[in-house]
Amino acid sequence: MSKPLARWVLVPLWLLILLAAMALRGPVTWGQATPAAPAASTPIQAPVSINGETLFSVGGNEPQARAKRIQTRIQTLITRKNEVGDFTVEKVSGSYLILIGDIPVLTVTATDAQDALMKPEALAKQWGGILTDTVSKARAERNSWVQRILNPLHRSFNQLLDSLLETFPRLISAILLLFIISFGAKLVRAGVSPIVRQINLDDNLRQLITSLSFYGSWIIGLITVASVLGFQASSLVTALGVSGFVLGFAFKDILSHFLAGILLLAGRSFQIGDQILIQSYEGTVERIDLRATHLRTYDNRLVIIPNADVFTSAVVNNTQSQTRRQEFDIGIDYEANIADAQLLAFKAVKATEGVLEDPAPDVLVVELASSWITLRCRFWTDSRRANVLAVGSEARRRVKEVFDREKIYLPFNITEVRLDPKWEKSVIRALNLWRSLQGDQSVLAVGDGATSAKREEMSGRDGQETGRPKEETEAEAKEKAETALPQNPSPEAS
């Protein structure tokens, strides 16, 4: 593989691997350094919030419990009926106690001051002012019924706005990443395709490897996008595991087509370019995707069959072998010589262009029908449909022509009709009357208990062939006189 080609293939692969590693690591805030993992003894901070608004954060050994106690005290001050005075700060054992009125609310420790990079007394005064303003504002809102209605709406709107402002950069990053993933997946597929073509694989495996590289790139990219949006990879995998059965039932058809496509490509029951018959559709395989098989019919229509239907149906592969046998039947007259007819048909078929010499063609007697002897001509050709049709048509034409030339007739279906003797004379008389009206001067006669179409000119010709007139018995002459009609009947007679 050339160096430029390797560069175009490996660069997107390394980029997708890097994105997957970032996704497994977790979301990263852009523009900031990734903070080191806190040690087990390092305290963390918990926010102190009132009505959805964060006032400040406190630390300590149990910051969550401490923040909750502070919030409870603030709510007591807000709901208090008596007036609440200004805040005061008292120093107690190296710490500073913040009181609002006569209620102690918060003790500012040296640890809090260290976290805020301020002196303890200055931090206590700052927090005291924040607490006083918050309590006064909340008490004023509580006393107004209009504020009671508007404040929850205002807080909800602020929270929604803050959430949107926080999510918007991630959303933009995810959209940009989707474009990169789309381009990268196509680039990976375009890079993998020439590589697999250089390997000694059939078309099905090449198609499978190319498709898996494309969809695999998309899976890695979507995991990365989920991580950018704030979803942890472990939580995502857990959610997919829990909802796997639900998704399996919801998308069972899509998953069955996908799995059937993989099995068809791996099993290699047919390949691209084969001519196959699936259900009622016959044509050439143009493409095998992971979802459906594309079949081009012989009248140039495109049929897209889901892979699950292909996998569960009987498939006839007409081009699995290079050769294909075809046959046709032809009927000859019983008076023809069967051996001569077989030899003539054999030579005609063998001389047809496209008929293979090995295996050699043959002509068999397969049926003694009521009106003819059936000969079956069998021969081998190339398995492609166009070749089968063209060679078969030419072989039939040649056999017909050689039979015509050698006076071997292809008889029509002969039907013999027998009449009841008591109705035979009446039927013959009616037929003779009808034929005379049509201008036909020949006369039908009654045979020995059966109807036979014998023309008078036939008997005359037979007499000429034997050199003497044909002799008639007295019974035959009498019967002919009874059934015959005058040559030119007068109007009165008719």
Structure report:
The protein is of the alpha+beta class and 494 residues long. Helix content is 53%, strand content 17%. Strand 7 (281-288) and strand 8 form a beta hairpin. Residues 1-11, 26-42, 448-471 and 485-494 have low confidence and may be disordered.
Primary descriptors:
disordered C terminus, 3-stranded antiparallel β-sheet, 53% helix, 494 residues, 5-stranded antiparallel β-sheet
Q: Which residues form runs of ≥5 with pLDDT under 50?
A: 1-11, 26-42, 448-471, 485-494
Strand order of the largest sheet: 9-8-7-6-10
Mean pLDDT: 75
Structural class call reads alpha+beta
Determine the number of helices (DSSP H or I, runs of at least 4 residues). Answer: 15
- What value does the Rg take, in angstroms? 51 Å
- Percentage of residues assigned to helices: 40-55%
Molecular shape: elongated
- How many extended strands? 15
Content of β-strand: 15-25%
Main sheet properties:
5 strands, antiparallel
Cα distance spanning the termini = 103 Å
H/E element order: HEEHEEEHHHHHHHEEEEHEEHEEHHEEHH
Give a brief rundown of this model.
The protein is built from 15 helices and 15 strands.
Write the layout of secondary structure elements.
Layout: H1 3-25, E1 46-50, E2 53-58, H2 63-79, E3 87-92, E4 95-100, E5 103-108, H3 110-116, H4 120-143, H5 145-198, H6 203-228, H7 233-242, H8 244-250, H9 252-267, E6 275-278, E7 281-288, E8 292-297, E9 302-306, H10 307-312, E10 315-317, E11 323-332, H11 338-350, E12 362-368, E13 373-382, H12 385-405, H13 421-437, E14 445-446, E15 451-452, H14 456-466, H15 474-483
Antiparallel strand pairs: 1-2, 3-4, 4-5, 6-7, 6-10, 7-8, 8-9, 11-13, 12-13, 14-15
